[in-house]
Amino acid sequence: MLRLLCVRLLAMIPLLVIVSFLIYSLIALVPGGPEVALAGSNPTPERIQAIREELGLDEPFLIQYWNWLTDVLHGDLGNSFVDDQSVWSAVASGFPVTLSLVVLTLIFAAVAGLALGLAAGLRPGSWVDRLSTVTASAFMALPYFWVGMMLVLIFAIQMRALPAVGYVSFSESPLDWFSHLLLPAVSLATVPTAVVARQTRAAVTSVMQEDYIRTAKAKGLHPRRVAVKHVMKNAAVPVVTAFGVEANRLIGATVVIEQLFALPGVGKLAYFSVFSRDFPMVQGILLITAVLIMLVNLAVDLSYGYFNPKVKAS
Amino acid sequence: MTQSDSVDLRKPVTAPVGDGADLVEHVSRGRATLRRFRANKSAVVGCVLLLLIIIVTAAAPLIAPYGPAQVDISDRLSGPTPEHWLGTDTLGRDTLSRLMHGGRVSLAAAGLAVLIATVIGLPLGLIGGYFGGLVDWLLDRAADVLMSFPAIVLTIAIIAAVGPGLTTAMVSLGIVYAPRMYRVVRGSTLEVRREVYIEASTSIGTPHHMILRRRVLPNILPAALVQLSFLLASALLAEVTISLLGLGALPPTASWGSMLGQAFQEMRSQPSLAVYPGIAIAVATLCFNLVGDGLRDAFGRETRKA
């Protein structure tokens, strides 16, 4: 296991080099160069030249990339073009918000998806199954941000039961933390819930046809115990798979949801940086996101071996 | 036998060809697939609804009661009336007309992104899967790189560099989605590559480009087609997301995303404005998914989920 982990981590290095080059190359796509984008309207040539020198843009592109990369490897992602704040500290201050949101979303998705999938998979063809399948299809198709808007409309504007915007940290007040994250997390959870439900249903229906389930039933084990002891154990794999598939999309979705609910997370920071063409910030966030997604994928792959020893061999 | 032979040449089969019975079955493969698709009620409903949406939105300039940017300040934020079936927005623009015109923009944008993804991903997937080796390895690493970012994040990062606009956004999205088409095509090509009939073609000296076009391509098309419909659903959602964020369709252009974005600003004064575009997006997405599911089931064992 440790060997596998090391091999996989080492394999990430070349990928990261290419990823980082791609991220840095984004600057080359800017029409006229980033200095023109930065200098504002009607800049003098002197001002543009001053910015070029300040940013080291007079160097050849590969040298610029190399300088950036060595800084990154020394833990320095650079400073914002907008307010000169370090990229690290900006991302670090938004990270707890985004992490809270994602974790809560995954918990909701796991609970709701497992319940739907189990209910459907234990009685295939029943009305419960059909209801659950229809629910999952609807969840797949409903745009998550629209779900968010409708939830705001119902629970914040009309019922005034929950806050529509803002964030309170967990240490300040766990209850307010939860109430501020409830609507955004529920709207983010729709698609993952549907994915988990579908995967679970498929896994459960196939497990139910196994001989050991027949044996368990034949020896008089209560159906609920069969479900808990034999079926649930196998349901972990589809949930983990769904999370792996969804992690990538979910991180993208936080950009929109944090914007709608005015949550000061990394997603909102990314959006603001894109809008203000704050390239060091955009590059830093992209790089951190890519590393996070690679680590999540690695964790998902490794957890297959844990949940299903049969996979380990391959 | 001559007849089935000639058909078999044009449409090689995925399943190993055993006896004559197999051949006969595969001759009518297209018709059998169509029959299976038509027997799938939800797929047919999805298909019909989708066609309806496409016709109504494509014909928007002809059949919409008002222009998408036709302003009437005296009649702003009206609820549903006989003149404006779905009411009007803050500038007095007719919501129904904007929905029809906006759908045209959103669906065309999604189509453009998926077209680009297919034009890039399909040939590269064929080449990678068929030839293998270094080319395949390089292409696969390139796909890894593009797929290590969330699609939306990478797209808006490209927009940050190039500047906003719907066409830019959709071209970027097409590039970002290319690996998803590539992966599916490469996977099926790898499977087809191992079939005996490919070995047979190679051994009689058929040139590679001919094998790719006449033998491999027809067999990977089902998988590509299924992926196409799912990608369309994702691309539609992505267009809406990007325009909602104000980085795609810019005002006064109506797209389902920009309408939703404006409606969100006005949610307290006119909540119903946010309802209609959302329903339109959800129905269109559902249709793409239903058609995709239907196609996958109809192609049956020939297509395994990638």
Automatic annotation (TrEMBL), chain A:
Source species of the chain: Actinomadura soli
GO biological process, alphabetically ordered: transmembrane transport
A GO-annotated cellular component: plasma membrane
Main subcellular location: membrane
Residue ranges crossing the lipid bilayer per the database entry: 7-30, 97-122, 134-157, 177-197, 285-307
Organism lineage string: Bacteria, Bacillati, Actinomycetota, Actinomycetes, Streptosporangiales
A matching Pfam family: BPD_transp_1
Family from the record: Belongs to the binding-protein-dependent transport system permease family.
Protein localization: Cell membrane
Top-level taxon of the source organism: Bacteria
UniProt keyword annotations, A-Z: Cell membrane, Membrane, Transmembrane, Transmembrane helix, Transport
SUPFAM superfamilies: MetI-like (SSF161098)
CDD domains attached to this UniProt entry: TM_PBP2
Name the record gives this protein: ABC transporter permease
Membrane-related topology note: Multi-pass membrane protein
UniProtKB/TrEMBL annotation, chain B:
Annotated family: Belongs to the binding-protein-dependent transport system permease family.
TM region(s), chain numbering: 43-64, 107-131, 151-178, 220-250, 274-295
Biological-process GO terms, alphabetical: transmembrane transport
ABC transmembrane type-1 domain: residues covered: 103-292
UniProt entry keywords in alphabetical sequence: Cell membrane, Membrane, Transmembrane, Transmembrane helix, Transport
Keyword Transmembrane helix set for record: yes
Pfam families in the record: BPD_transp_1, OppC_N
Subcellular localization(s) per the UniProt record: Cell membrane
Stated name of the protein: ABC transporter permease
Gene3D superfamilies: MetI-like
Cellular compartments per GO CC: plasma membrane
Topology relative to the membrane: Multi-pass membrane protein
Keyword Endoplasmic reticulum among UniProt keywords: no
Source species: Actinomadura soli
Cleavable signal peptide: none
Matching SUPFAM superfamilies: MetI-like
